[in-house]
Design goal:
By secondary structure, this protein is an alpha+beta fold. It contains 21 helices and nine strands. The strands form two sheets. A seven-stranded mixed sheet has the order 3-4-5-2-1-8-9. A two-stranded antiparallel ribbon has the order 6-7. α10 crosses α14.
């Protein structure tokens, strides 16, 4: 099998590969770029594996006029910058000792040893500069073709080496698995058995994985499996997966949004547990407020804006198992376009301080109750 793509033939990629091969070493693309290219999906990060030790990679890069950056040299990784693009070049490795997200590694010249320490079989695929794919373990291509996500070797061992792999199991299943054949039973059982290990992970890493999972075209089956296995409760206590599938259905052409889907899951303090940014936390809180607002569709749009109002409407209908009437969408959009015609200056100096605020709220309530139809003059006329 061969992979193709503009990214593969790009000058900066070929320069780094040639730098290594001209120096007498193996130069193999690996992991996500190979997997995605084989699935005809976009490629972003370029990872390269080699039998050259990191110091040798540094020397070869300098000799070739490229810029080496020792980003993780103690673990064998050097970022080689070619044409202003970074490429992670990592020496073949084998694990000597693992504990959580940390490991003691030894450099290797054996490609199979390097493949055997990777997380999933479809990520243990390599490719030469001409696109020829190499499957050292003899399982990756078959699993990729079947859209079957499986751990390399013993799932329990892979997970205890790095508990983040539990979340990656669900995330990669959502993105690359075949929903019709379900999840790998052995891998799912291991994730359930070792789910308590998630507590050892940083909340930043958990949040990063959950954002990527919830950004998948349809994360509902994977999230449902997370809930059934007890993993979702470890990540986000109190969260429920039952309304996510209806929400994805209702979204239709609306772009996937991890925060909308997170709001649909509920749960205790997601902003803190997933280390959301301040902007994300504010948006999530705003959406939760909208979900609890008993106002009409038009009032929802007026108070929270077109996007948040639409998202709240989507989640509400998903939780009720209803389709969204076009009239509801239109009312939200109509409400979002309205602007209250009375300002504080219109009521001064007759009203001051708390009385001013109370009067503004009273007039706004009247205006909303009128279907936003009362004019400024009509509202001020009621302030006799």
């Amino acid at each position: 099998m061969k992979i193709t793509g503009d990214w593969l033939t790009a000058g900066h990629v070929q320069k780094v590969l040639a730098m290594l091969s001209d120096g007498g070493h193996q130069a193999l693309l690996v992991g996500g770029c190979v997997r995605n290219a084989a699935l005809f999906q976009p490629v972003s990060d370029i990872d390269i594996a080699t039998d050259a030790p990191p110091e040798r990679v540094m020397a070869l890069a300098k000799a070739a006029g490229l810029k080496p950056v020792p980003t993780g040299i103690e673990h064998g990784t050097v970022t080689v910058v070619a044409d202003h693009v970074g490429h992670e070049v990592t020496t073949f490795r084998r694990d000597v000792e693992t504990f959580g997200r940390h490991a003691i590694v030894a450099f290797s010249t054996d490609l199979r040893e390097d493949a055997a320490r990777r997380d999933f079989t479809m990520n243990a695929l390599y490719a030469r500069a001409d696109g020829t794919v190499i499957d050292p373990l003899g399982e990756g291509l078959a699993d990729l073709s079947a859209r079957r996500l499986r751990f390399v070797g013993d799932p329990a061992q892979r997970i205890t080496e790095d508990y983040l792999r539990i979340l990656r199991f669900f995330r990669f299943t959502a993105w690359y698995g075949d929903p019709d054949q379900g999840m790998d039973a052995e891998g799912l059982a291991a994730c359930a058995a070792f789910s308590a290990g998630i507590e050892t992970l940083s909340r930043e890493r958990i949040g990063h994985e959950m954002r990527k999972l919830l950004s998948a075209p349809d994360p509902a089956p994977a999230v449902a499996a997370m809930a059934a296995s007890g993993v979702l409760a470890q990540v986000l206590p109190g969260a429920e997966a039952r309304f996510l599938a209806p929400l994805v259905h209702l979204e239709g052409s609306v772009p996937a949004d991890p925060l909308r889907r997170l709001a649909c899951l509920g749960g205790e303090d997601p902003a803190d547990r997933l280390r959301l940014s301040k902007a994300e936390a504010r948006r999530l809180e705003r959406l939760r407020e909208a979900l609890g607002d008993p106002g009409s569709d038009a009032e929802l749009g007026y108070r929270y804006g077109a996007e948040t109002g639409r998202d709240a409407l989507l989640i509400r209908c998903a939780s009720l198992g209803q389709e969204i009437p076009e009239s509801s969408r239109n009312r939200v959009a109509f409400g979002a376009a309205q602007r209250f015609p009375v300002t504080a200056a219109d009521l001064m100096p007759k009203h001051q301080g708390p009385a001013l605020g109370a009067k503004l709220k009273e007039l706004e309530r009247r205006w909303i109750a009128s279907g936003f139809s009362l004019s400024r003059e009509a509202l001020l006329g009621t302030d006799g």
